[in-house]
Structures are given as C-alpha cells and as structure tokens.
Amino acid sequence: MADTNLAQAVEAADELSAYDMNIKFLLADKQILAWILKYAVCEFRDMEIDDIMGSIGEDIKVGTKPLDAGLSNLGRVHASATEDGVPGEGVIFFDIRFTAYHKEEEMKFLINIEAQKSSDPSKLGYHLENRIIFYLARMVSAQKQTEFYHSDYDSLKKVRSIWICMDNSMDGDSIEEIGLAGKTVFGSRRNLYNADLLKGIIINVRSGKNINESRNMLISMLEKLLSQKSAEEKKRILAEEYGMVMTTELEGRIRTMCNLSENIKAIGIKEGIEQGIERGIEQGIERGIEQGIERGIQRERLNAVRRMVEAGAEKKQILSFGYTEDEFAEAERI
Question: Disulfide check for 71: which of 66, 117, 123, 160 has CB 3.0–4.6 Å away?
C-alpha cells in the first residue's frame, strides 16, 4: 500500500506541476497579456488591445515571423530571461517576464506576472505583499549594467509585478496596487519625481461553480479562462465575448489545461479511497466521494461509485465506504 500511495503522490505531483506550468504558458499568450496590461496597468488603459499586443516584447511584434512552426504572431511572449540571480542573494525564478513599450509616452516597462494559487498568509507562511516588494526591488536593482550604467539612475525603467491570486471568496474579486507614494513631511516641496517607478498589482480572482460574473472585465475573463468549463466552451467564450483569435497555441493550451484538470480529479478520487477523504485532491473529492457522502444525493453516490470503479478500486473497498450492492451494480451499468 505504501508503494501504491507513493506512486499516486508522484503521479499527482507530476499532473499538478504540468497543470501549473500550462497555466503560465496560457497566461503568457500575447492576447491574454494585452488584456492584463489594459485593465491592470494604468498606463495602458487607454490603448486598444491590438496596440497593446504590438507593444509587447523585444522579440515579438505584430506582423513578425512566428516564434515556432505553425504559430501566428499572436503567440506567447518569448522572454529573454525568467530568472534573476544576485551573488549572495539567491535566485528568483519569475513565472512570466517580458518588456512592453508605451510608444506615445516613450516609456519602456519591465513586467513580471505570477500565477499564485493562494494569497492567504496562513497557507503561504508570509504576507504576499512583502514578497511582491522583494520582487520589485530585484527588478529595479537588476537594471544596473543592463538598462543603465554608472550613475545614470534617471534611465531606470518602470517595473510592474502582477500577481494573479486564484483562491478568493465569492465577494473577493478585486484589483489592488502597491507602490511608492511621495509625501512632504516638512516644507513646501511638491511633485516628487518618479514615484511610480515600481508598482505591484494583485488581481484577485475567484473559483467555484456558483460565483456571479465579476463586474470587472479582466477578472471576468480570467475566471472563465481558469474555470472548470470545457475546452470548447472556453474557446467559444474567449472568441465571442472577448474577441480573441483562437491560434494554434492558445487552443492547445486551453485543451491541455482542461485535460490535466480532469486527470487531477481522477487521481484525487483514487487517492481519496486509499488515503482518506480529507487527503484527496479537492476537485476529485468534490466531484466524487464528498458529494456522495455529505449531500446524500443518490445520483452523486452513483457517480462516486462509478469513478471509484474507473479508478481501479475493488468492490470490497467500495462497499467498505458504506455504498450498497445495488449502487455498485448500477454504477457498473452506467
């Protein structure tokens, strides 16, 4: 049993790792990034989505050669570096990092986007705001010898660290900013220079089946993109409601994410049988064992039994959880 549990834990970890990585690639699609910049970074708010897409990335511009075979120029950003190391300070690995240009105001932005499962200090062991400040500081200090040399500090580029947090409550959809604020504490000096050099932006999205549609366009789009809807439904929504073009890569990432989500649920059911309901993956339990036991709905009980059978559980194991012979027989016929 121990070997089986270990194998399942490794399998679940692999699936979750692949799922997390796929979300990062999905968020790095130029169309998704353009939406994030428009609705989360104030300097891009008045720009059209197509213009923002054209401003993204040093290596990718609208109308240039595709990055990979079969991909259009709407594909993901190809960042030059996603890690930052300073001697004696360790290495930071960024989820997504890219450059954007505001042509009208002739500004260059260094941008980092992080996909964060939780912002709860009790789960993280620290306050997320402190980590964001640390990331911003590193993005500023890393510009020496790359964006400016010697004492030319006026050549510092603006940095934005955007964090998409996915576990908020039903009324928790919001966007927050962290930044510098100049204040004169004595005398009459005004207009402190470049107080907006760095900003942290937290986009709080929700998950679950019964959430109301957010009144914020960006949050609404992200919640649908990251939801449990089918790949076909997500593609339809992105195309019809948000005007996105279904490129080869965007379609593939959406489909892969949905497939990985289903695999994670199946692993959760199997693990829930052998290790206990409380240790199963949340979605697997919700779709299988928990709904059957807690809600007592016969249809869900049958679904739970069917999933256990598909996961390889033996009849004796299933009956030991309180299910009946009739339910087992009915599940096998479904």
Answer: 66
User: Looking at the predicted structure, is the pLDDT value of residue 134 above 60?
Assistant: yes
Q: How confident is the model at residue 44 (pLDDT cuts 50, 70, 90)?
A: very high
Is the pLDDT higher at 148 or at 159? 159
C-alpha triplet 128, 130, 133: angle, nearest 5°: 110
Question: What residue spans of the chain are helical by DSSP H?
Answer: 2-27, 30-40, 49-55, 121-124, 128-141, 217-225, 231-242, 248-275, 282-287, 289-290, 298-310, 315-320, 325-333
Q: What is the largest CA-CA distance in the chain?
A: 83
Strand partners, 249: none
On whether the CB atoms of residues 29 and 56 are closer than 8 A, the answer is: no
Pairwise CA distance, residues 77 & 73, whole Å: 10
pLDDT (tens digit per residue) in 168-200: 888 889 999 999 877 778 887 666 666 789 999
Buried b / exposed e across 27-46, counting CB within 10 Å, b at 16+?
bbbbbbbbbbbbbbbebbee
- Indicate the pTM of the whole model: 0.69
Give me the amino acid identity at 14.
Answer: D
What crossing angle do the helices spanning 298-310 and 248-275 adopt, rounded to 10°?
A: 100
In 3D space, the residue among 255, 246, 257, 259 whose CA is nearest the CA of residue 29 turns out to be 246
12 residue type, one letter: A
